[in-house]
Protein 1
Amino acid sequence: MPTLPALSSNWKSLLLPFIGLLFVFGLFTALIYAFEPDNLSAFLSSRNAKTVITQTVIVGIGALGMTMVITSGGIDLSAGSTIALSSVACALTINAFASGEDPATIGALGMTAAALVAMATGAATGAFNGSVSCLLKIPPFIVTLGTMLIARGAAEGIAKQSQVRTPENALQNFMQRKPDPEWLFLAPGVWITLALLIGVGITMRYTVFGRYIYALGSNESTARLCGIPIARTRILIYTLCGTLMGISGVMSYAFLGSGDPTTAVAKELDIIAAVVIGGGSLSGGQGSPIGSIAGALIMTLLVSGCSMLNVPDYSQKIIIGFIIIGAVAVDTWKTRRQAAS
């Protein structure tokens, strides 16, 4: 049985993303103090902290799925489109249960069905990615690039190229900064993200399947010689990733209050960047769910800090683009250094 790489058990590597998070927070605190002092109290407020944490949910859940894929040596460029398609599926299911004289009254059955349909939609997309890539021997980059267009087109088609609006329901409360009930303190979506983090973390660290994920990314040929079922494992990895994208789609629906086929455009870049910033390697074999969540928090904090500094939206995109390039450059440098040692 292949063992986990030393990096995954290295506490220093796990702490680095959080050190980076503290650095980004300190940097923006200093910049806001220097250039926009009137916004400093707002940036440091608990209200903004809750907003940042809540806005991290969609990327964070997606990053958990992407962590498994990237650690296994794969990639998924269809993440944003899968989130959009799942949010539309969620909204359409809600509307299917909204009947009678008071359509706003949607019971737990309707909301549960909507969430399950969204998850099934994401799982089907992921299973398609994994199956086509493995069975037809097509690189996942190409397969998921095609699926990105297929899923986006499907979302626009079934939504008739417009937002799918629904009656008010409790599912829309999952992304509220002020939760109901108040004793939750944080939005329900945040607690769901934490639960998923624990589940993915345990799966990757303490299960045979998790060892398979690291083994595939470290050396697929060796993993095959060890008797690991390569195709079946990869299909399962992509299916689980798609399922998590489906949950992100539910959170996207909750955040927007509707199913939007145009949402999450280029969101896969934020998700991939979160994984790489969190210590994952695009070469495979390295990845940490908790690091990916820290990376997602960094991405959200960047947007919040730029907004407080009144940085224009186009400039924010340029900054994030450079950060993505920098994160990949560091990952490449680390890979070459390890190969040379």
Protein 2
Amino acid sequence: MHTVTVGDSYFHDLYNLIQGDIYSGVVPADNIRSDFTWSPIIGDSLNTKIFNLLNRRGFVLVSITSKPDIHELIRWQNEYLGSSMKDRGLNKGMYSTVMAEKNGKFFVNSNLTQPIHTDEGHTSVFPRYISLYCETPSASGGISTLVHSKGLLKNLKINFGDNIRLLFDQNAVCVKNVSGYESKSLLIRLKDGRTGISYSPILRGLSCDEPIFDVYSGITKYVHDPENQIRFRLSKNQLLIIDNCRVLHGRTKFPASDDRVLYRMWFSECHLSTMVNLTV
């Protein structure tokens, strides 16, 4: 079977596409109504509703009654989403500040459009749940973009048939990341029987068999079609909680002078090697 190996130059076309005004300029609703409003004094009944909706739909949007202590917000989510997963890198803690920095090296600390992805989708260790708390929304741009894996998987089955089973193999792809080379699956069977995804669209390098490369390219094309995205602008004091295995996310670019500030939190560390890899 023919093996396809690509370097970072392969991903330039996607990078240029998503940084363009056409991709970023698809007009969304200015904001989206929160599913629930939460404060520390709220009882367990509303908490149950919040996290039940997250389980059913894959994401939930919550208004926080006033600017919270970020550690209090983390502790509340710990009760329902599991232990915090420490962010990678030197001096990283239980949350990361998402804002544009001068000469930022990564999407998270730049004003660039961030491609649709799952957090840590370039490695075999990732958070099951993530959340983004908006302290200061963008004045222009910075639109949140979500893609539910349910529609993606349906599209892949139609276009690639049985070949999508190959994506469950723990050695489906070999990716080059900051740590070197790592083999990983792209699809996983979650404990509740649903299918999850661990995916990154822009890598330092990728190697896999040709049928898998075709499906990987199909994923990239589908998730970056605005017709398949839910787009909205986060408002001040809104918290977006996402099932990182079932809903992919990104954002559009915003002016470098914008003071957009979000806090990103990770919960429930997962390892692909311990997941149940079955066929669709």
Protein 3
Amino acid sequence: MFKVKTVLLITALVTAVAVVVLALLGTNSAKQAYAAPTIVIDAGHGGTDGGVTGAESRVTEAEINLAISFMLEEELISRGFNTVKTRTSEGTAAIVTGEKQQDMEKRKATILSAVPDAVISIHCNKFPSSERRGAQVFFNPHSENGKTLAARLQDSLNILNIVEVGRGFSSLGGDYYILNCSAYPSAIVECGFLSNAEDEKLLLSEDYRKKLVKAIADGLEKFLYVDFMKAR
């Protein structure tokens, strides 16, 4: 009788372990299903459209946007993401350089073709007052996922803003083509104000750019794995 109970106990333990193992495997399989989200990285401007220029260095926004987009791609790939870029050179995304409408339509086509989990558009800001500074995120007010994505990105970037600017900001709704051209969660990250000399120096610093792309990647991960994926 004792031997029978022992055998039954061992069988029950083996069964329980098997159930736990299978559950863990199931969880890992679920994670693997979302292990490689696709992110479109849009480097704003390019070609004859240089965007805004640095207050002191006269560096173009297009140049900084492209450099940050490559760094962001590297950071996201290191975290297991798939990436697609709308612009990979100093020119625009358009076939004919300088044609703004064609450029934007080409970016839209890239986004739609990628079927991404999120779109991050990299820009630099400008303001009449040279005192204005800091990183700020914009979203389509009609997109709940876009709003959530922007909030996550802004929260993460505010860690840098508090250190460098002394305060955090809220993400803002905006009517911009890159936010409106698809239904995918999209956000514009204005990395700083080139009209502000201190922000300009930061944006020209490789060390700060690394902090910037890490903050963007951190916010994106929170959106994907806490908000967006959970709701799918």
Protein 4
Amino acid sequence: MSTRVSVLVPTLDEELNLPECLDSLTWADEVFVLDSYSHDTTVEVARARGATVVQHGWEGYSRQKNWALSTLPFRNDWVLIVDADERVTPELRCELQQVLANPTCDGYYLNRKFIFLGTWIRHAGWYPSWNLRLFRHRLGRYDDREVHEHVVLNGRAGYLRSDLLHRDRRGLEAYISRHNRYSTLEATARLKAERDAPDRAKLPVSVLASPVQRKRFLRERVWPHVPGKPLVLFVYMYFLRRGFLDGRAGLALCVFHAFQEFIVGLKLAELRRLSSMEPSR
């Protein structure tokens, strides 16, 4: 018997990850694959596993999912959002089924278990990693941020105990490429914040709020004013959050994100320079 939940899986060229993802969702009542005109066999993989494929041109991480939440004909009140490189573990499936049989909240945070270079990253600030992924679809929308987007829920949220597994089968090249794109989006978001153009439907932030809101508070209100960000980030992840306990993979992850922060700074400086040249043009 299927569970009365609709699953949304956004995709773009995910033929390597999608089979395991969809195989972990066979218990759900319906699965929508929201594709952005993939060039590989993503669509064929989705249809072969019984998913409903919907094509929509890429608008950005938050706007893409908001379009789906407002447009797709979900036949269930609850929606679960899963990335193609994520899998619902058997333990999480059982917990989801129990919660949905008698929900006490309007949404639930899921904890992601991140696998990097074949290693579960338990430290460096990457675990726990809470994301609001299960909610009544009429009550939740993503904030309009280009990257690191979050759901704004008009209701009460709870937390599930079991992990959502994150394992990208595409390898390190895809990981680096994706995060290079993230660095561009992050630089754009920071420039937007500098120009006093806040995101619409912004997630409320407070240092005294939930763990997710505290993280957002530090990212938006504190981090932009910290000098020497790449070095500070590495020290924080590798030493203060004990990334060294994750061995070689922990070191690689901390170095990579420190370098990414360095790239964000360069791209932000470039955006400022180009922006200041626009009136003369």
